[in-house]
Amino acid sequence: MKWLFIVAVAATVQAETGHDAWLRYGSASASQATVLLNARAELTRAGQQKSFVLTVAPDLQNEPNGFRISSSAGMIRIEGGSDAGVLYGVFAYLRDPDRTNYNSNPIAPIRWVNQWDNLDGSIERGYGGRSIFWENGHARGDLTRVSEYGRLLASIGINGATVNNVNADKRLLTAEYIPEIARIAAAFRPWGVHVAVSVDFGSPQTVGGLDTFDPLDSKVAAWWAARADDLYKAIPDLAGFVLKADSEGRVGPSAYHRTHADAANVVARALKPHGGVLLYRGFVYDHHMDWNNPKNDRARAAYDNFAPLDGQFEPNVIIQIKNGPIDFQVREPVSPLFDALKLTNEALELQVTQEYMGQGRHMVFLGPQWKEVFPKKALKGVVGVANVGLDANWLGNHMSQANLYAFGRLAWDPSLTSEQIIGEWTRQTFGDIPAISEM
Length: 439
What we know:
The chain has two domains: 3-104, Chitobiase, domain 2; 110-430, Glycosidases (TIM Barrel, Alpha-Beta Barrel), CATH 3.20.20.80. Helix content is 29%, strand content 16%. It contains 13 helices and 15 strands. The protein has helices at residues 35-45, 83-95, 144-155, 178-188, 203-206, 218-234, 260-271, 301-306, 337-340, 367-373, 401-412, 418-430, 434-437, and strands spanning 3-7, 51-56, 67-72, 75-80, 102-104, 110-114, 134-135, 138-139, 160-162, 194-199, 240-243, 277-281, 317-322, 345-351, 381-385.
């Protein structure tokens, strides 16, 4: 059993710039080498004077990300089902040091952010500056901000990050980029955040040089398997792939009159031996269709494409479904695909970046909207399009940080109220000031 016994010492206070978001305690310090060491470092950074035991508990390992906090005789014990669970428990304790003797488990094992970052350093729908991952076609030389982002994500229980645009650059699956993805993964790893990559379905042809990308062709299956093998040799804890196909100009299985199950399964089978998952986006429609034709119903497109395929997907395929059937609109109904798929893994996709909510210029708290759309059923995952950037405050303005915070908290526990979440964020961001907290 791994454990750490510590007595944390006070840390010095530094001026706040927005860079530390809701983690505005103590002095800046470099990321530690392991998840458990970072858990200990957070208590030190926060100036905690109590005694703590941090440990992985065997009886919690059926829920690796869960944790238990207990206190006895002046000792705070924080136990997790894994090293990451311990870290989440530390952040939960620091969020509310007065609350002890409870345990907490996330509602879904997959809690990821999607970053729509391009290899040239730009970000699609990014209002917080340029990419923290990429610049001029390569991974940044200094990935300090990636580690800092990992800390922010860990503090709200996020365990995965897709580091490139869902409209995937084909180059990312070439041998040249595997070491670059590995460097990014290394920056995230000490915070329990696993890297995933978006892939292009046509890659067996455009990257692999095959004469086809037909998902039922054995050469295509072998190519995907070889790519996965190469990636996992360099990044053993790679979370998996995200795939957007037959949507908004992206190639897909329709080129060969195949189904989305055919497409998802050939990629998922390549990931399966390594424990990887495929998040296959349910956002599928023909963007060239004539909107004047009443038979072209975009709101039905995802349902029409995926409902007939229920039960035909590999176990490590998760259909990633936008909260509504159109496209993250200000007000639209919950996607009917959530109820249609009875035998297929599902992930809810939310948009943290404010594409339809003022492009990062307007002050909008999205927690109440998201509360309305969480399906009343078990989810395999919750995914948020975050799109943080190099700006000091990550998202273009301080207040937008509340949405990233709310996404993480709801991805862990959607029973939290909007008032609870915004209260937590306000106290951690601005301090426990009555004039603010009572507004």
